[in-house]
Amino acid sequence: MEEKRTRTGKTREQRELEYKNLKCYFCETKSDPDYKDTLVLRRYISERGKIQPGGRTGTCSKHQRMLSSEIKKARQMALIYYTENHAL
Fold this sequence. Notes:
Helix content is 44%, strand content 0%. The chain is mainly alpha-helical. The protein has a single domain (22-86), classed as CATH 4.10.640.10. The protein is flat and about 50 Å long. The termini are far apart.
């Protein structure tokens, strides 16, 4: 029986292996997300402006919850744009 492939041409097992070995950046550096550190926060936002899920970025659930609230704070204070189309 032939394996099902997705639009990217990869099987489910291949996609799972890509994200399996990711480590939480905040656990490794022993720091917490901060709304003032926009360079770090931008790593966790997609091109369309959505917050990336923890499984894709490798963040643990504790830091993912903190990260989402800090991104929302930074957006409210206009440190990060909501989408790339809003950039000046």
